[in-house]
Write a structure and sequence with these properties.
This protein is mostly helical and 178 residues long. It contains 3 helices and 2 strands, in the order H-H-H-E-E. The protein has helices at 48-54, 66-144, 150-156; strands at residues 166-167, 172-173. Strands 1-2 form a two-stranded antiparallel ribbon. It is found in: Nucleus.
Length: 178
């Protein structure tokens, strides 16, 4: 049994080269030539291998050994961990302070709401007391025909003038807020 070679027998042992990526030229058999831009027309064409020989390769940077890199990485990781811990602790402390201030604000708001109701009731009580004392003073004036001062009435009932917002100097009631 005989084996038939491929149609293009010369390229059987060569790796596949796509015609779409590199165009075939007729002078491929003679060697690879590159059309490089020439400074003058008298300069000959250079082959690819010659061009590669004369190209300067950039100098390589000295690479440190892997142990040095590992040590540097460990040191930087430890520094970062210390920094992260200190930042975390400071943030936790700030959060605690904010929570305490928030709790204080909430309690003051709660007391303010409770106090608003209480203050409203106190103002109502003071207004009622003032009106009752003035009515009593008018009643005594009409009944007995004599003027009785408010300080006499307050002392008779043993009421301190501050409790009903009474000003002894002016002999009048002050506004609701005392």
């Amino acid at each position: 049994m005989s084996t038939k070679p491929f149609k293009n027998g010369r390229g059987v042992d060569k790796p596949f080269c796509s015609p779409f990526t590199t165009p075939h030229r007729n002078d491929d058999d003679k060697g690879i030539l590159i059309d490089a831009p020439r400074a003058s027309k008298s300069e000959p064409l250079k082959s690819l291998s010659m061009k590669r020989l004369f190209e300067e390769t950039p100098p390589r940077k000295r690479s440190r050994s892997s142990t040095e890199n590992d040590n540097d990485d460990r040191i930087s990781e430890e520094k970062n961990k210390v920094l992260y811990r200190s930042d975390l602790e400071s943030l936790k402390e700030r959060i605690r302070e904010k929570e305490v201030s928030l709790a204080a604000l909430k309690t003051s708001l709660l007391y303010r709401k409770k106090n608003e109701d209480l203050e409203g009731a106190i103002e109502k009580w003071i207004g009622g007391c003032q009106a009752a004392l003035q009515d009593y003073q008018e009643h005594l004036r009409e009944r007995n025909g004599q003027n009785v001062s408010m300080s006499d009435i307050l002392s008779f009932f043993d009421i301190t003038p501050d409790k009903v917002c009474y000003s002894v100097d002016d002999d009048t009631f002050s506004p609701r807020k005392c």
